[in-house]
Every structure is written in C-alpha cells, then in structure tokens.
C-alpha cells in the first residue's frame, strides 16, 4: 500500500538533493532557508485550518500519525520541495553574462 510518506519522499529526496547543490553553489542557501522557515509556519497555520475544518482529510491508514496540530507531518513535504526547488530552478536557468 502506498502511503503519503512514500509518495512525498519519492519527490522530496531528488528535488531537495538537486536544489541544495544549486543553492550551495550559487551561495543562495541562507535566503532559501529563511524562506523555508516562513513557509513552514504559514503551512502549519493554513494546513491546520483546512484539515481542522474538514476541507481536506487524510486516510489514517496511509499516514505516519505524527501531526502538528491536526495536520499530518507528510503535508509539509510539498512546502519544503517548493521552497527549495523554485529558487534553485530560477538560479539554474538564469542567464549569465558571458
């Protein structure tokens, strides 16, 4: 049975590994980590709202059971991947003067 953790890790591990390489090489890791901290706080707040009000529900058999408030920990993987991948992609595709 596929769990949310396995699905999240299948995306999170390669995305974060490649993003960290780009961010470290371009000396942009500190701003990305600051953005990550902000986004994780916002994710915690809004995920708790949408899960707590029943807008989104998770199958308890497919999650670890670790929650921050009412939001399962696996739900934070999307925020982590996005906040590291987007600036890394921006930097990797940036045109540099020759």
TrEMBL record:
Topological relation to the membrane, as annotated: Multi-pass membrane protein
Q: In which pathway does it act?
A: Carotenoid biosynthesis
The protein's location, in the record's own words, is: Membrane
- KW Zinc-finger (keyword) present: no
Q: Which domain of life is it from?
A: Bacteria
InterPro entries from the xrefs?
Lycopene_cyclase_dom
- Give UniProt keywords alphabetically: Carotenoid biosynthesis, Isomerase, Membrane, Transmembrane, Transmembrane helix
The residues that cross the membrane are 6-24, 36-56, 76-93
Q: Where is the Lycopene cyclase domain?
A: 3-87
Tell me yes or no: is Membrane among this UniProt entry's keywords. yes
Q: One Pfam match, by short name? A: Lycopene_cyc
Supply the name of the protein. Answer: Lycopene cyclase domain-containing protein
What is the organism lineage in this UniProt record? Answer: Bacteria, Bacillati, Actinomycetota, Actinomycetes, Micrococcales
